[in-house]
Design goal:
There is one protein chain. With 279 residues, this protein is an alpha+beta fold. Helix content is 28%, strand content 22%. The protein is built from 3 helices and 15 strands. It has helices at 2-57, 127-138, 239-248; strands spanning 73-75, 79-80, 90-91, 99-101, 105-112, 115-122, 145-146, 149-151, 157-160, 178-179, 181-182, 200-203, 216-219, 231-237, 268-274. A 9-stranded antiparallel sheet has the order 7-15-5-6-14-12-13-9-8. A two-stranded antiparallel ribbon has the order 1-4. Strands 2-11 form a two-stranded antiparallel sheet. It is globular. The termini are far apart.
């Protein structure tokens, strides 16, 4: 009898020890889970704090660009020439605004002593160049200037836009004038053949990138020029005037340099105007 009770008591102790061991294991697992969760929460808080700190203390690069151009506008770079690099042929009329409209079509009207020459300028293609041209026209920059260069062999262009090419006769410095700033090229016809077909009006430059100023040329016959000059627009009227000037020939003053010379039939720009953008 005693032996039976002892066996029962031993079995009960064994069950109790087993239950206690199971409870202890569950409690230990629960504590581990809580510890893992707590550590995870702490990690999230640390990461969140780090992100907040980075945003709060970040440099200017993380801030929104408040200087971006307004919708439909372009940011332009009009680079002023150093004052010690401005020859007397430079005409200083200040700088255009760096923000220029990139929408609408303008009409350029060149009123010459031989009659009007008109062109269409699409600002979506040349917002900065069109903006510069409009600015200079408003300053009467081109008034009473002469188209100083004509090329009848090869490239077939009449070049104008030098503010120093005025008065009677010609000077050795003709073609060296411009505004007191330069700008990058736009709308280069790299995919066009020929790059500069008859009727195009384009900007002259020194051959170096970013050297566009005020001088421009009217193409009166398909030209194989390298596509390094901004296409400003397309002639819509008066191309016959340019062709008549070309028929009269040039004096070969630039024959040993860039080619061509002063046109024998003088072309004087009495006024150059740019209409308000339409469309």
């Amino acid at each position: 009898m005693t032996s039976t009770r002892e066996r029962q008591r031993a079995a009960a102790r064994a069950r109790l020890e087993k239950e206690m061991a199971e409870r202890s294991a569950k409690a230990r697992k629960r504590r581990q889970t809580q510890a893992i969760v707590s550590a995870g929460v702490a990690l999230v808080l640390v990461v969140a704090g780090t992100v907040w700190l980075a945003v709060s203390l970040g440099g200017d690069d993380d801030k929104p660009d408040t200087t971006a151009a307004a919708p439909g506008a372009s940011e332009c770079a009009f680079n002023a020439l150093p004052t010690d690099q401005r020859p007397p042929q430079i005409k200083d009329v200040g700088l255009p605004s760096n923000e220029q409209s990139g929408t609408g079509v303008q009409t350029m009207t060149i009123d010459t002593n031989l009659g009007p020459i008109t062109a269409k300028v699409d600002r979506s293609l040349v917002p900065c160049t069109a903006g510069s041209f409009t600015y200079l026209a408003e300053k009467n920059f081109f008034d009473n200037t002469k188209c100083h260069r004509l090329v009848t062999e090869g490239i077939k262009v009449l070049q104008c836009g030098d503010p120093s090419a005025t008065g009677n006769g010609w000077r050795d410095t003709d073609g060296q004038g411009g505004p007191s700033y330069r700008m990058p090229e736009e709308n280069l016809p790299t995919d066009k053949r020929p790059p500069y077909p008859e009727g195009v009006i384009a900007m002259a430059n020194s051959g170096q990138p970013g050297s566009t100023g005020s001088q421009f040329f009217i193409v009166y016959g398909d030209s194989p020029l390298d596509p390094a000059y901004t296409v400003l627009g397309t002639i819509t009227g008066g191309l016959d005037i340019v062709k008549d000037v070309a028929k009269a020939g040039d004096d070969e003053a630039f024959a040993q340099q860039a080619g061509g010379g002063h046109p024998k039939k003088e072309v004087v720009i009495k006024d150059l105007a740019m209409s308000n953008p339409q469309g």
